[in-house]
Amino acid sequence: DAKTTQPTSMDCAEGRAANLPCNHSTISGNEYIHWYRQIHSQGPQYVIHGLKNNETNAMASLIITEDRNSSVLILPHATLRDTAVYYCIVRVARWDRWGCTCAISPWWQVRRRVAFI
User: Fold this and answer.
1) How many CA atoms within 13 Å lie on the side-chain side of 102?
2) Which residues form a coiled coil (predicted)?
3) Which of 28, 45, 115, 116 is the most buried if burial means most Cβ atoms within 10 Å?
4) Domain coordinates in residue numbering, the chain
């Protein structure tokens, strides 16, 4: 499994974009980059994931470098409701019985985390 490193905390002005970096220099070709967040007193919540291409959803964007050694989670208009611990996780995808690739990404196997304040 690839190890991930992230800053231990980051600050962002409300209404501005928050850029949360993650380094994963030991990533292999079939490992996905996942981001989860955990708001105080709640369980982890999926944010976004990607393999090689940049991804965007309603909550965030994931920018992956061409060599896949690092990535950045972008929250385009951060608010106080985005205050959470953000987890960057790298895991291999598995095939389920329907032929879909389903990434196995247990949040508790995170090496480091980012507190977004």
Assistant:
1) 7
2) none
3) 116
4) 4-96+104-116
- CA-based nearest residue to 28, from 56, 67, 72: 67
pTM of the predicted structure, to 2 decimals: 0.79
pLDDT of residue 96: 57
Q: Which CATH architecture has domain 4-96+104-116?
A: Sandwich (2.60)
**Residue 48, token pair as written in the block:** 């976004």
